[in-house]
Amino acid sequence: MGKVTAQTRLANQLLLEAIKNPKNLPVLSLADWELLIRMGRRTRLLGRLEADLSRIGLLAEIPSRAADHLRAARNVIDHRNTLVKWEINRILWALNGTEAPIILLKGAAYVQANLPPAHGRIFADVDLLRPEERIEEIEEKLSLRGWLKMQIDPYDDRYYRVWMHEIPPLRHRERGTEIDIHHRILPRTSRLNSDPALLFEAARPLEDSRLHVLAPADMVLHALVHLFLECDPREGLRLRDLLDVHLLFQHYGQEQSFWDGLTPRAYKLGLERPLFYGLRFALRFFDTPIPQTVRSEIKNAGPRWPMLWLMDHLVALAILPGHPDYPYPWATLARHLLYLRAHWLKMPPLMLARHLLYKAYLRSRGVRGKVDLAKLDLRQQ
Amino acid sequence: MRVGDLALRKFKSRLATEGLQVQFGPFVIRMRSDLASFASLAHQLYHHYPLASATAMTDFHVQITRPRWLRRWLRPQSLFTLDGQSPFAPYAVEHALPALEWGINWCIATRAHHLLMLHAAVVERDGQAIIFPAWPGHGKSTLCAALIHSGWRLLSDEFGLVHPEDGKLLPIPRLIPLKNESIDVIRRFRPGAIIGPSFFNTRKGTVAHVMPSEESIRRGHEPAEPRWLIFPRWAAEASLTLKPIPKSEAFLMVATNAFNYEVLDNTAFHLVTDMVQACDCYSFRYSNLDEAVTALNALTSSGHG
């Protein structure tokens, strides 16, 4: 285990250092580049490295074989960003005449508002936020214009409609793109109780005033909710999501008023705990410049020390990828525990037990398909 | 140093431990496997492939191994993994080699977006290349296998790799997978062709791999200029026809059939435009391979003679 621990630590340091100080990347050895590319691929951060290097004009200074991988990631990102913008354009067309603005969330918001996380990051779907009572109206309009309800089993449909914060995804019948329509940012059943009406009031219009994005503090808080509550047992917490938060802190944090309003807003929305963790881990992994006043304001929002000690360890294990040749069993355990924690916060215990049992049953039946390499049409990847 | 320069024993033990870095055209693949049957076969079929120098950067770290736990013992399987991750269905243990070949294709098709990847076979002579865009069942692999046993160098059978900076075609001489009847067609066409064992009942039917010539692999870093775009179609009993087609039509067929035309966007548009401009474009129907090769030789000799 000694070697695995040491390799895990070295690999994680390499990745974090690359993200924090891209100006030092030209001095990396080829062996380090090879490892960095593998880790960047796993965490989907290759595009971020490319964007940083090209911003500071050092892309030509790194080994050309490594640069090829970064350029490849960048080409895919540019393409996906174009697709997201086109999808938003089509959504506006489909919803022509709809009253009340459409709020873009996550990737679609970053791309459309040209915020720093959009550079160097892949976003797959378009996420929208609408008042619950106005969802039916746009669901209908979208279905008239080619977005269809995906075929899902009745359990999943009920899971979405009754418990969740979004309706089952719609998929465009030709383009295959998906829209997730949310009416709140947390499941109805969640232990964290957050009033969605506040988000709608504070949302800000974009240049095209039919489109809105969340107010800066709300956007950060939503990114944090997503980071800590949408965890995948295989992937763990997503480092790229925390990096989005770091970039938003940097971007909006240029204005003192952002920092002044952040903690009170988190308390008002009942999201002080996610903010506590977000600030803590952004600072720890990315050295985010966070004013001392904010750090002391949020201090009391954290858990007691045994829990805090545990979270410090679990998050570090689950969010950093480790060395691909030295899988770290503790990291796998941490990812599963945080997955359970995320679900624990999402729903009451009995419901959780039922839900996990049902999912386990599906897995045992092999419903979650594996890729068949022989039959794959590689052009659709 | 080539794969074949290693003794089988050494090859096997390296494969089972730190892995071997094999050069496939522009990519270095580090492969690992603990399957003895796979190792012997790979040692034969990858004989000519160069081993990358120890300091070269590896592009993809792949493994073909037995799955863990029970499946190790019950109906043994082989599982392809990239960087230790496997979203893939396992295969019968005897199908490890085709599974690895498909897996490497998957790595390239989903990752190598710094290049334009046409779905095409490419062969070269005197620095000039014929590109055969592929449609399933149209027989490009068979035609390609025949040509590389008739004096042409194999650039690629699956990926027509186009270098965005200069529009040249990059070689990636991999094994050529023949399916079903094509296997015997090539055995009859060139009894000397080295064809690996037939893998029966894969999800693509029976598959066997043709080894590219030693020369094609040795010259795996020499690019070629696109010169002819030929859209082949095999049809039983068809008499041979070789008809020029409009460049606009050729453009559409190449662009819509590429792996990542949309991803490269504007760059891809210019690359395909330049390629179509530089190439004579033909549709080609044939039934007999000897006739087909003769016709293509005649066309390409007069083309620049």
UniProtKB/TrEMBL annotation, chain A:
Pfam family, one: NTP_transf_5
Top-level division of the source organism's lineage: Bacteria
InterPro entries: NTP_transf_5 (IPR039498)
Protein name, entry field: Nucleotidyltransferase family protein
Taxon lineage: Bacteria, Pseudomonadati, Pseudomonadota, Gammaproteobacteria, Methylococcales
Automatic annotation (TrEMBL), chain B:
Keywords associated with the record: Kinase, Transferase
Molecular function terms from GO: kinase activity
InterPro entries, sorted: HprK-rel_A, P-loop_NTPase
Keyword Kinase recorded: yes
Keyword Kinase: yes
UniProt xrefs under NCBIfam families: HprK_rel_A
Protein name, entry field: HprK-related kinase A
